[in-house]
Every structure is written in C-alpha cells, then in structure tokens.
Amino acid sequence: MAEADPGLSMRLPSVPEVSVTDAGDLDARLREATEPFVVRGLVADWPLVEAGRRSGREARDYLLRRRRDVPFTVSVGAPATDGGRLFYDDAMGMNFRTLRAKLPEIFAQIDTLEERADAPPIYLASIDVHGFFQGLHEANHVDLGAREPMASIWMGTRTRVAAHNDMPDNLACVAVGRRRFTIFPRDQFRNLYLGPVDNTPAGRAVSMVDFHDPDFERHPRFREALAHAQVAELEAGDAVFVPSMWWHHVEGLEPFNVLVNYWWKETPRWLGVPQDALNHAMLAIRDLPADQKQHWRDLFEYYVFNNGDDVVSHIPPGARSVLDPLTPESAGRLRAYLVGQLSR
User: Which residues form the JmjC domain (predicted)?
Assistant: First the structure.
C-alpha cells in the first residue's frame, strides 16, 4: 500500500538530532532542553523493536504474550478514512467509534486487514504500560533517572492525529513501524486554528487544519505556523523529545506502528492543572462586561503572573496563607475550597 502524501511536512526543516552516551547524558540533555530534539537509535536494543523489525505480526505476538487479560479501549475509523485521519466528521462528532475489546481480538482484526488498501484505521491510544501489560516495561524502557514518568503505549495501523499539545514533557520512542512528528512552538496556537476545548478527539484541543491538504484561504495564518515548524521522521528505535505545551501532529506510517512515550512534569504532582483554570475562567470571566473583564485581567496579573513582593509585604509572615509559595498542605486546602465552591 502506498504511503499517504506527506504534503508540506517534507518541505519543513528537520528537528535537530543529538547523540547521548548513557542515561546520565540523556538526563542532562532533557534538563537543559528548551526545544525538541531527536535521538537516533535510543531504544534500538529493545526486544520489542527487534520483533517489529522482523514483522508487524511478530511485534503483535510479542505484545500478546505480555498483555493482561483485560479489555482495551480502541478507536476504529471508517474504511478508507482519509489517510487514517482520526478527526471530526462533518457534524463535528468524531469520525471514529470507541470500543472495548481484548487485545487478541483487536490484533486479529489488524491481522485480517493489514494489507487492505481500504482498511479502517485501528488505534489504541495512550494505554498505560504497567496497567495493561506484565513485564513489558521491565524489558523495554528508558532510564529517566529520578523522574517518575507515566509510560504509555500507542498501537495501531496507519493513522494521522491532528496537532495538539500536552502539559507534561514528552519523550516519544518509536518501537515498531515509522512515525512522523510535525512540531510547532507553544506560541503558534493562534495560527493553528484550534477546535473546541470540550469536544475533542482525545481530550486536548486540536488544529482544524488538514496537514495533508491545507486550505490557506480558510486558514491563512497557518502559513505563519509553518514558518516555525519542524519535522521529525522517526524509524523504529528512534526517539523525539517534545517539550511541554509544544504542538505536535503525529502520523503512523506503516501498516502496524507502536510508540512508547514517557510524560513527566517538573512541577510537584500536588499543583493544579492550568487547563482546569482556563476552562473555569471561560465559565466565570469570559462573558462578563468588558470593564469587569479588564478588572479580572488586572487581578490575574497581580496575583498570578507578576506575583511580586507587593502582594504580600503588608501581611505578617505566617498569615499569608495561599499567597505564600504553595505547599502540599496549602494546595490541599485551596483545592478543597475550590471543590466546595464548584459544588454549590
């Protein structure tokens, strides 16, 4: 089956490549990084990678021997979906169904459809490695030092996932097949024409632009986004680091593809999620009269974004509560207060 037209991604500059010598070197590069980078062959010695080099079926057999006997969540698109694009339909619903099935059943369907040109995309997204497999992590993982990452596995046929971003830092490792990442800096969100924040294919707002057939009349600012974009073409064994909140469009390019990624945050786990604050601000502030909105903008600058000494200098030490730097205890009190307010 011929690969879908990569379109403009092939005309973009490549994500810079770095070499790492060991886990300590990788740790240092991750701590210092402010932009994406690619590491060729980072996980080339994984048994899963070796199985996938022999065939997609051997990779699936390897995974089946280590799966837990539990239902998996799987997305199934319509036959001959546009290059495997998992996206909205014309009514802004989803152009795929979400089902639950055991992994042998899902992989048997992929076995049957693997070489068919009209095969529907089948995609298992963000599956918790520890919760759904036994021994897979121990035999196939990256040493990330003191970090405590969430390890997820993504398995499926040819797919295209619209540009989106994630709060945590992300090290994405191609285990089977090939992946293409088209990556944009955080500040390009205005030029990506984002869709709804509450009705999304996978929980994050996505770009409405079709990267294989962009409509520049409808999305003219997308040209500016492309001026800042980079592309990473990854073979099995390669990895790419995507910093927190950078936008990335991801394509699985082979009949069967597997990616393992690691998400982690440099901030404490007990801090809140900024997206929740944004959602609540849309509920509570966005539709206020203009003068009130301006006042709340000033309050956010004062308490959140500037957060200078003038906010607390007139309050005695020990009496500043959540205006002091948060601790697990004060964050817990603030969270409980918010839950109570939102429940009213």
Answer: 108-279
Residue of 263, 256, 21 whose CA lies nearest to 121? 256
Is 148 within the bounds of a domain? yes
Alpha helices in 152-284 (DSSP H): 222-226, 274-284
Residue 285 lies in a domain: yes
- Report the alpha-carbon distance of residue 317 to residue 313 in Å, rounded: 8
Tokens 């169904």 belong to which residue?
A: 97
Number of domains forming the structure of the chain: 2
Asked, for residue 52, whether it belongs to a domain, the answer is yes
Distance from chain centroid for Cα 55: 27
**What are the tens digits of pLDDT across the range 160-188?**
999 999 999 999 999 999 999 999 999 99
Q: Quick one: 109 and 253 in the same domain?
A: yes
Read off the pTM: 0.94
- In angstroms, rounded to a whole number, what is the distance separating the alpha carbons of residues 124 and 171? 18
Q: Which helix (H) or strand (E) holds 111?
A: helix 103-113
Task: Answer for the pair 41, 238: CB distance below 8 angstroms, yes or no.
Answer: yes
| Rounded-to-integer distance, Cα 168 and Cα 265, Å | 5
